[in-house]
Design a protein that fits this description.
The protein is α+β, with helices and mostly antiparallel strands. It is built from four helices and five strands. The protein has a five-stranded mixed beta sheet.
């Protein structure tokens, strides 16, 4: 099997991944993914597509991720892994689609408006 690459995005984070057959090693920005993502819930998010398709330990995954925070980066990696698994085997598509891993979450931070404190919060009104 040759190297399969895929792209995932979430908020400001962009994850480019390269998947090949191996022993299940996941490397993010040249670091072990357990060291890169300190929180166990982020480990769970990254592993979700592999758990659903029962392919844990079958592929080595190398990830380059930039931008955003840790949660956005983890969800970008999840989307990229799901897309790569569909490229590897089309039979994974219904399972991943049902779990919602193939849908790009397009929610981003709303911009700050001029004349206001934040996107929706206004400056305090003073009558006098």
């Amino acid at each position: 099997m040759e190297v399969i690459n895929a792209l995932g995005r979430r908020k400001e984070a962009i994850a480019r991944i390269y998947v090949q057959e191996g022993k299940g090693a996941i490397t993010i920005n040249k670091r072990e993914f357990v060291q890169y993502f300190q929180e166990p819930r982020l480990h769970y998010i990254v592993n979700q597509p592999l758990m659903v398709t029962e392919t844990e330990g079958k592929y080595d995954i190398n990830v380059n991720v930039v931008g955003g925070g840790y949660k956005g980066q983890a969800e970008a990696v999840r989307l990229a892994i799901a897309r790569a698994l569909v490229k590897i085997d089309e039979e994974f598509k219904p399972v991943l689609r049902k779990s919602g891993f193939l849908t790009r979450d397009s929610r981003v931070v709303e911009r700050k408006k001029p004349g206001q404190k934040k996107a929706r919060k206004k400056f305090q009104f003073s009558k006098r």
